[in-house]
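Practice record 12: protein with zinc ion.
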Amino acid sequence: MLNQINKIRHGFQEIIDMHKLINREITEVWNMLDKNKYKYVTIDVIEQIFGKYEYKEIAGGRVHIIDNWRNENIKFLKIGTTEVWINRLIFPQTAYVFAKIYAENLENELDLKGGGGFVARHQLWNPAYPLSCHAYGCAIDFNPEKFPYGSDLKPHPRVIEIFQEGGFYWGGDFSRTKDNMHFQFAYFII
Ligand SMILES: [Zn+2]
């Protein structure tokens, strides 16, 4: 993957260094994962990989993280004009996905308006449900106005493919209500 990143863009040294740093960590959990791009990882496995944190409930299905987990794990990624907060363990592969989308001149498809990555909240903003993948910085939503929850409107097919190749599961493949704006961690790119 790193060579591919280098081919796409220069100036990715920081990301390459980060990938080296986390490679052992992500290799250790590699066998827990299905590595099938059409599968998704349940939230308890997400928790095992990305860590549990202490929180208290706040309004609107959000949670407030009490311990230091957020500071230690959530990082700011900026590629071109695309900015997102995500988990450090998927930082390199997300950078790869974004860079590849730019390289194919599809950056207009990377519109995160009203969406984004890390949000400490429950699934569907409903406290009756478990924490969301977003609460671990392991999911990214694109422009919810353009791709509303449950609608048939989809991101560009190449964007979906690039995310799948980059280790993400697409919410349009859920057997329950489709969530076409949503991409979440499926496997690591080592
Ligand atoms: Zn989402």
